[in-house]
């Protein structure tokens, strides 16, 4: 088939494929679920006509051209739900003022939205109490899924099919037994409660899928980063070996896919499959980083690695609640902005947090050659950092020098303000939803995302 297309020996086949391409469109935001059939719209197509060299075009050129155009149109930090043209660039270029040139203590901070007047009053523990039973059921179901498998006709509690290899079962259960933050399934469950009177079984399954995908990504991350600890314990790759850790991560993704299939909703399947693909793309983008000093690259990687899973899980939760398209889009926008805020704070904690608080090693991004927001902002004041970024902090003394210059710069403050900006936009989306206890707890959760120390 590939030779047939490349050699262009069948004009009718080419024309049929071209016609099919023209009849489809790529959504402006890839996390809104990949390719969709074109719907009637008053807006003209965002993609220009494909240039055809002859009546029998080379299909490889057509497909390449098509997806090149898609990529240019699909930068994931888009504004197509709200008229916020250029806001991201304004945030990135924001000049944070000092009362005196060297007085960082008097920095003009961006204020965190507090529509409920509950900052410093409501505690993060309240959030998890509301969904505590659901989280417990989710964890138990995941453990059963890992150990026994899941049948195609099972309800929320999987029916046993066969026993998993005991070593594979033990490794795969390792992180779930530690019960980490579980922020992602908590977001799914609270949003589900905010959009409908009861949480549906399909939404409980969605929370399970999200946590399994996230945990699998942690297992693979630890192999890639050669991490030695995770959640205050020895990481899986150090406890067992890289080979077994990789197989464990693959197994978790496979089991998550089986649970996802039992939800039996093609839109949700497409959303979560897109999130998984983009997670891998983000990892690949990071691994193949060429030391570019670019906020665009940083935000794109941040969205792909972290934001996409939260975005698509929020969208899926709204779809499963039976909400209309407006509520689905509001939920998606909330997830996108909260996901970005979460990862930006994570990058900040790599500079400001302690290993004891974070439950993992800190100051590792520079060691891995990664330029995140604090050092990118610091480059605006200390251009000599660009040289270090381009060589990925690979020479002796580079990491220490970068940390020193970040500490002297406004990079930490600017990074925190950027996270607060995205958090505020997430809260603004939540305020468009009907008032409820669960919605208000999501606002509190948004606060904890940017004020956390681990």
List keywords for this structure.
about 60% helix, 4 strands, disordered N terminus, 2 domains, two-stranded antiparallel sheet, mainly alpha, about 0% strand, about 450 residues
Report on this model:
This protein has 454 residues and is mainly α. It has 2 domains: 1-36 and 59-69, no CATH class; 105-451, Farnesyl Diphosphate Synthase, CATH 1.10.600.10. The chain contains 20 helices and 4 strands. Strand 3 and strand 4 (233-234) form a beta hairpin. Mean pLDDT is 77; it is low at 1-107. It holds the Pfam family polyprenyl_synt. Its cofactor is Mg(2+). Residues 35-45 have a biased composition (Low complexity). GO terms for molecular function: metal ion binding; prenyltransferase activity.
Which sequence of SSEs, written as H and E, runs from N to C? HHEEHHHHHHHEEHHHHHHHHHHH
Reported by name, the CATH topology of the largest domain is: Farnesyl Diphosphate Synthase
Secondary-structure-derived class: mainly alpha
CATH homologous superfamily title of the largest domain = Farnesyl Diphosphate Synthase
Contiguous low-pLDDT stretches (5 residues minimum) are 1-107
> What does the main sheet amount to?
2 strands, antiparallel
CATH level 1 class label of the largest domain: Mainly Alpha
The proportion of residues forming helix, as a percent range, comes to: 55-70%
Strand segment count: 4
Q: End-to-end span in angstroms?
A: 52 Å
Strand content: under 5%
The average pLDDT score comes to 77
As for the number of domains, it is 2
Strand order of the largest sheet: 1-2
Count of alpha/pi helices: 20
What integer value in Å does the Rg equal? 23 Å
Architecture of the largest domain, CATH level 2?
Orthogonal Bundle
Global outline: globular
